[in-house]
Amino acid sequence: MVWCVVSKLIVAVAAWLRTTYPNANLVIKDYGIGGCASQCLVAPSEHDIYPFYPDLVIFHVYGSNTDYETIVRTTRERTTAEMLLQTDHFTGDDSWSDQMSYTFIPQYANTYQCGIANIRDPWKRYLTANSYQPSQLLSDDVHLNAQGNYLMAALIERNLAYKSTLAADPNGLVKEYHVGTDAAWQSGTLAMRFAGNRVDVVFDNTGAAGTRATVLVDGARPSTNAGCYSFTRPNGAFGAEWIDDPLGKDWPWETGAIMRVTSSAQRLVEDWTVTITRFASGTDFSFSVAGTRTGADGSGSYSGTDPFVSTSRRVVIRRADWWLANLIDTSISVGHTIKWSAAGNFADTVVAPSMTDPATEYTVTLAQGLTNADHQLTLTALGATVPIKAIRVYRPFYNRASSTVPDPLPVAVQRAAGPVARAMPASRGLDAAVRYDLRGRRTAAPRVGQAGVFLVAGQPCARARADVSVR
Question: How many domains does the chain have?
Fold first, then answer.
């Protein structure tokens, strides 16, 4: 989580990344929640990390080692994100921080093949070299002051280096099947098998805009697949956090919200609202639920059946996931609302966009949230053939099913110089493919127009200048 009012550390590291990799369109988000240990963060990760489908997660959080592992494992099961696990900075002798930093984090890094940002040891060396006490880098017992933030940023940045001697993408997380060599249009249909839980199309920039094709995965429209939907963070705009807006925090105890909402039925793309209909305290209240397409969908109370399941079963809320007590700068009364959206991570019809910039890579996600197994993709042109250059497939590393799908043929990737931009599907707001391995490498030749995603789920604070060198 982020432990400060404005996450200047993350802003600084983001600026460094953009300067270091100027031809990558980096989409950078900070979804940390202040004061939220791993046993708390495990719930909103369902809304913040997995649907976002990042390329890179830089992760630090205090708390339970078991919930810490759950977040790491689930990220590696449901996304192709590389992960950099950050050890604790040194605030004084602490046996639990030592156990997390020297036992549990290395164990999880080995099991889930993550990188480690060793902060604790160089932090101690820095203190010794400069004859500092731990408190001289802190603003309280754990948060960093300006000099501490400078040191933290420098230690993180040195883990994000390109090393050409290391193999690219050894786990086969992202593969591209090029149209014309690995797959081909035949009589207006492009059909191919793939292995993974997400599939995108990459358009040929020389093609005509407006051409269309229907999309089937395993013989069905992607919208019929329950896994291709996700909920946004309740009472928090998807993507609204400190990187975008220093005043745009959406922490549950600032808004009065629900930490996690799930579903046990096929969802629709719609907006949802919980309305408080009776309120005595944060553990004694009643509520109603409604969706913009589903309509009124039942009512319940905190002390009622656990979990609450709406009439349509499209909304499921565990009692432990309510946060209407111990609020900061807000209060709850009858009529208080909690809002979120059901987003569709799919396209039943793919339409070639207007491709005016030859240096921009244009993509559309056809389906995200599939089972991580073998699937059949079928595109059927509605008139002229859609100008598709490649099919990009994402296959998470951990607990992947065995596959009989052949690898794509080696194809040279053309590179162009200069800054790039990226056209994003409006329904997602994110699409990414340039990858940075946490062992310090760029895992595939940087393709112009692709976006690397850097998601921080936990960092301790701001960066400022300091006149002491980092050792």
Answer: 3
Question: Residue 97: CB partners within 8 Å, gap ≥ 6?
Answer: 88, 90, 91, 120
Residues 57 and 135 grouped into a single domain: yes
Residue 233 exposed, middle or buried by CB count within 10 Å (0-12, 13-18, 19+)? buried
Q: What CA–CA distance (Å, rounded) separates 37 from 360? A: 40
Number of CB atoms found within 10 A of residue 378's CB: 15
- Greatest alpha-carbon pair distance for the chain in Å reads 74
- Write out the H or E segment, with its range, that includes residue 203: strand 189-203
* Beta strands at 284-291 and 361-381: parallel, antiparallel or unpaired: unpaired
Q: Are residues 308 and 325 in the same domain?
A: yes
The pTM of the full predicted model, rounded to 2 decimals, is 0.84
For residue 6, give the 3-state DSSP assignment.
coil
Rounded mean pLDDT, 274-280: 97
Q: How far apart are CA 387 and CA 367, in angstroms?
A: 19
Per-residue pLDDT at 469 exceeds 70: no
Contact 145, 138 (CB under 8 A): yes
Sheet holding 337-344, edge to edge: 229-231, 337-344, 270-281, 284-291, 295-301
Distance CA 301, CA 283 (A): 9
pLDDT band with cut points at 50, 70 and 90 for residue 26: confident
Give residue 363's domain range: 174-225+346-428
Instruction: List CB contacts of 220: < 8 A, sequence separation 6 or more.
Output: none
| Strand duo 349-351 + 212-217: pairing | antiparallel
With residues binned 3-state (H G I as helix, E B as strand, rest as coil), the percentages for the chain, rounded to 5, are 20, 30, 50
Phi-psi bin for 313: left (phi > 0), alpha (psi -120 to 50), beta?
left
Q: Are residues 117 and 21 in the same domain?
A: yes
CA distance 132 to 470: 13
